[in-house]
Design goal:
Elements: E1 6-7, E2 16-20, E3 23-31, E4 34-42, E5 47-51, H1 60-65, E6 73-80, E7 83-90, E8 98-105, E9 118-126, E10 138-141, E11 147-151, E12 158-163, E13 178-181, E14 191-199, E15 202-209, E16 221-227, E17 248-251, E18 261-271, E19 277-285, E20 291-301, E21 307-309
Parallel strand pairs: 1-5
Antiparallel strand pairs: 2-3, 3-4, 4-5, 6-7, 7-8, 8-9, 10-11, 11-12, 12-13, 14-15, 15-16, 16-17, 18-19, 19-20, 20-21
Length: 310
């Protein structure tokens, strides 16, 4: 698929993917003159065109909480009942003063009656000294009907919190986030971008290891582990816990540097209604000065139940 992608595929950083009717929508971190959230659409997952972003500016409450923020990071899109939820994060690079907010809408199609994003405000925030960073949200459901939000970047790794299904916000604001993945001390703290997938009787946790945002010098890559419970413990294919740095490589650029697209990471996942599974992510185009570019691939599951990106 990556060899055939065309149209509006640049810039793309931290993309997610969803389908409404016969149309696909992708949202990603605001870039260049497309702020604060970048949006695009496609009918066939191959040719993409630009859409107006969901909102025209960072909400005032988020700017007050995070002075100096310039764009919205890592939006996550999902559907619950009769509304779409778009979780988003606001932060500044390398800082823990961060917030995750929520937008809702009845449709993703700007031409449809009733289209209009409503800002629902703060979901969770972090401050300097907390043991987590409130960015990179991902909405997930368990098989009992519970709703959760995975989040986190660097510091002590990835966390998960329970949501109130009625509001999409924290079920218990006083409950501490549950740890689900972190890097071993010897590997540093570079882990972020949780995405949880329910498949084959397992919950699968996709994460990004190492460093993004360095253009073609980025060594970002995707890893995965699985658990019988949405809250973990997650382990990789060798049985190493993801709370101890475990993670089976899912997508990685060639170590010798021959790949054109470097630093693949920050994935979203879509189980399409036709039965196909897709992984969407970004990578840095070495032939275009390292610009972050949309990447999209089919996912197949092997005989042992583990995923492989095609």
């Amino acid at each position: 698929m990556n060899d055939r992608l065309a149209g509006d595929i640049v810039p793309a950083h931290d993309p997610v993917l969803i389908r409404e009717g016969d149309t696909y929508y992708s949202y990603s971190t605001g870039q260049r003159d497309r702020l604060p959230i970048l949006a695009r659409t496609s009918r066939d997952l191959i040719t993409w065109r630009a859409l107006p972003g969901p909102i025209s500016a960072i909400p005032k409450w988020a700017l007050a909480a995070v002075p100096g923020a310039r764009d919205i990071w890592a939006p996550d899109i999902s559907r619950t009942r009769d509304r779409f939820r778009l979780y988003y994060s606001v932060s500044t690079f390398g800082k823990q003063r961060s917030v995750i907010g929520l937008l809702t809408n009845t449709t993703l199609d700007p031409a449809k009656r009733g289209y209009g994003w409503r800002d629902e405000g703060l979901v969770i925030g972090s401050k300097e000294g907390d043991n987590f960073n409130a960015i990179d949200p991902n909405f997930a459901r368990d098989r009992e009907g519970g709703q959760w939000l995975a989040l986190g970047s660097y510091w002590t790794g990835l966390k998960i919190v329970r949501l109130d299904p009625k509001t999409g916000k924290l079920a218990d604001p006083a409950a501490p986030p549950i740890a689900i993945a972190r890097r071993a001390a010897s590997d540093g703290t570079a882990i972020e971008a949780a995405f949880i997938v329910d498949h084959g009787g397992w919950y699968w946790l996709i994460a990004s290891f190492d460093h993004c945002c360095r253009g073609a010098d980025s060594n970002y890559h995707l890893v995965i582990g699985r658990s019988t419970k949405i809250t973990g413990p997650y382990v990789d294919r060798s049985g190493r816990p993801m709370l101890d740095g475990g993670g089976t490589v899912l997508v990685q650029a060639d170590a010798a540097g021959r790949d054109r697209f470097r630093g693949p990471g920050h994935a979203g996942f879509l189980h399409d209604r036709d039965g196909n599974d897709y992984l969407i992510y970004h990578a840095y185009d070495r032939d275009a000065r390292g610009v972050p570019t949309l990447r999209l691939t089919r996912v197949r599951w092997d005989a042992d139940g583990w995923p492989a990106a095609q």
